[in-house]
Specification:
Layout lengths: L1 E4 L26 E8 L6 H16 L2 E8 L8 H9 L5 E6 H9 L10 E16 L7 H10 L5 E4 L5 H12 L8 E4 L3 H9 L5 E5 H9 L3 E6 L19 E11 L5 H15 L2 H10 L2 E6 H21 L4
Parallel strand pairs: 1-10, 2-3, 2-4, 6-7, 6-8
Antiparallel strand pairs: 4-10, 5-8, 5-9, 5-10, 5-11
Helix pairs in contact: 3-10
Keywords: Signal
Family: Belongs to the UPF0065 (bug) family.
Organism: Teichococcus aestuarii
């Protein structure tokens, strides 16, 4: 069984729910007058959703006065990452939000820059993936999708995130489970959640793979049909996991916070204190529940050690399914 903790997606800032009055964050001592948040992806995806959630809870708690967001998307974060590294090196009051997708994208794109070039602050959340088809699709269930992959992988186009990321890995593993090669996949990579949704809803592709929260509203509205999720347990009551459907694949998509390279130890400690304080707030727990995220908090050096293991495991999986 392949077990990893990896990302997928959340809602854009405009769709983040307001926290209820009874659960509003208790006012804390302000830690930053201003915080720059760099998102190496377009608005509306999982990393942007986590960044906006951090902003909302931190503002209400009084931890940060002002936020400045910068979105630079492309190639699973590998376009924006060099910009953050060069422009924010050694500077205080700045964070990058990234996750598991970038680990695979760095390898698949042979990027000279990776998460090794920034400062790990904390892993924050994880989220299972979900496989969907348009509501009008002739694929009615997971078995129908697997049959299509087995008989005609090139004709079964699947939308997802960047090449080499978790969505791509899920598809590769599914193909392998059916005796096919990941190289046979008709995988259509999108830089953001919005374009991928549009392609699925417009039946421009046969299916889509992303984080549960990315498609939850479309499933609820009846515009998409959910076939299976990739978690250990069900994320949606009526949607089986791959594992309980007889496919021994368990994957989750982690997201986290990073500081610039070259920052002082006390600067890193300050950022770790910030995310640790945020994580302890009742309002943060409420936010995770509303977004459908699972708590995966792992701060500082423990997160740094986890990253090394995750990078090695991702490389092994990508080689196994022929993506690198």
């Amino acid at each position: 069984m392949l077990r990893r903790t990896l990302l997928s997606t959340a809602l854009a800032a405009a769709t983040l729910p307001l926290l209820g009055g009874g659960a509003r964050a208790q006012q804390q001592q302000q830690l930053y007058s201003s915080l720059h948040v760099f998102i190496p992806a377009g608005p509306g995806g999982g990393w942007d959703g986590l960044g906006r959630a951090i902003e909302q809870v931190a503002r209400q708690a009084g931890l940060v006065g002002n936020f400045q967001f910068e979105n630079v998307g492309g190639a699973g974060g590998t376009v924006g990452l060099p910009r953050f590294i060069s422009q924010r090196r050694g500077r205080e009051g700045s964070i990058l939000v990234g996750g598991a997708v970038m680990v695979g994208s760095v390898l698949a794109n042979k990027s000279p820059f990776g998460l090794k070039d920034v400062t790990p602050i904390a892993r924050m959340t994880t989220e299972p993936g979900i496989i969907v088809v348009p509501a009008g699709s002739d694929i009615k269930d997971l078995q129908g999708f697997l049959d299509a992959l087995k008989s005609n992988p090139g004709g079964t186009s699947v939308a997802g995130g960047s090449a080499g990321g978790i969505d791509h890995i899920v598809l590769g593993l599914l193909l392998k489970s059916q005796g096919r090669s990941a190289k046979e996949a008709s995988y259509v990579a999108f830089a953001g959640g919005g374009p991928a949704q549009a392609a699925i809803l417009g039946a421009q592709v046969k299916a889509g793979i992303s984080g549960v929260s990315e498609f939850a509203e479309q499933i609820k509205a009846g515009r998409m049909r959910a076939l299976a999720t990739t978690g250990e347990t069900r994320s949606l009551p009526d949607v089986p996991t791959l594992k309980e459907s007889g496919i021994d694949i368990t994957l989750g998509n982690w997201r986290g916070v990073f500081g610039p390279p070259g920052i002082k130890p006390e600067t890193r400690e300050g950022l770790v204190k910030f995310v640790t304080t945020l994580h302890g707030l009742p309002a943060w727990k409420e936010m995770m529940e509303r977004q459908g995220w699972e708590d995966a908090f792992l701060p500082g050096e423990a997160f740094e050690a986890y990253l090394k293991r995750d990078e090695a495991a991702t490389a092994e999986v990508l080689r196994e399914i022929g993506l690198i």
